[in-house]
Amino acid sequence: MNHEVTKGFILAAGKGTRMGPVGEFLPKPLWPLLGKTLLEIQVQFLKSLGIKEIFINVFHQADQFEQFIGEVLADELKVIREKELLDVGGAIHNLANQIGYEEKILILNSDTFFTFKDSEFKKMLLAMDEQDTCCLGTIEMTKGSGYTELVLDDHLKLKKLIKSHDVKNDKYFTYSGTSIVNLRNLTPRQGVSSFFDSVCDYQKTSVATYPFKDSEYWDLGTLEKYFAGLYRITSELISENHSQFTKFLLENKLIHQDLPVL
User: What are the domain boundaries of the chain?
Assistant: First the structure.
């Protein structure tokens, strides 16, 4: 198990605009995935990696979030309620200002699932040098996937970002949304800021990356991708040909055992 990183942070303050009209009223992390909510699944995944203390930021439909967490995850999560939407960088600094700029913390998005083994997590930790502000978990994508390309040097340090519409390579690495941030190496900041501006500022600080070998990436961040994910999991349950993510859901009883699969 992991013994160096004991805190996790789930980013969940978005407005859910990519989930259609329902997203205006139901926060995306509270959408169910054939049983448990996306949020409950992320919490279980963090616990499986040895994370002991889990934080979550909320803004959109914050009252609904807090009611759900109070009823279902009261002993699992600590809520950081934002008075304004701080963006990812601002959210991380807001947390650090409350808990201290003292240790490393694992960052996850609430609407993407990047599953990997504990052994890969340990290798990700080893990929970080003492001076690195963060280590980005990376995955390989193909041209046209719609994700930003990470340009790396020979030591796998981040040197440049290329927007999706400017990607020229047939295969490239992108950021998975999962990272380890060394709060000790950040310059404290207040207010709104982006992730690559105030946390992983590769132009001014050292940013490590780690290319996961045995992992799966499930992006459920849009209405179309959410339903595609539901269809894929259901198909795997029918065929009994389970992906790593579906196995995780079954092993941790995150899919209702009495769920009818037709």
Answer: 7-120+127-251
Strand ranges in the chain using DSSP code E only, listed in sequence order: 7-11, 53-58, 77-81, 104-109, 112-116, 132-142, 149-152, 158-162, 171-182, 206-211, 215-219
Minimal CA–CA distance to 65: which of 128, 15, 130, 6?
15
Contact, 128 vs 208, CB < 8 A? yes
Q: What is the pLDDT of residues 14-43, one digit of tens each?
A: 887 888 888 888 899 999 999 899 999 999
Whole-angstrom Cα distance, residue 208 to residue 116?
A: 18
Tokens, residue 88: 């990812």
Tens of pLDDT along 165-212? Answer: 999 999 999 999 999 999 999 999 999 999 999 999 999 999 999 999
Determine contact, residues 120/22, Cβ cutoff 8 Å.
no
Q: Which CATH class is domain 7-120+127-251?
A: alpha beta
Contact by Cβ (8 Å): 46, 91: no
Q: Which residues make Cβ contacts (< 8 Å) with residue 180, sequence separation at least 6?
A: 5, 104, 105, 106, 107, 124, 125, 128, 134, 135
Query: Which residue has tokens 């290798």?
Result: 123
Distances from the Cα of 49 to the Cαs of 2, 9, 61, 138, in angstroms? Answer: 6, 13, 29, 18
Measuring CA to CA, which residue among 1, 12, 6, 2 is closest to residue 73? 12
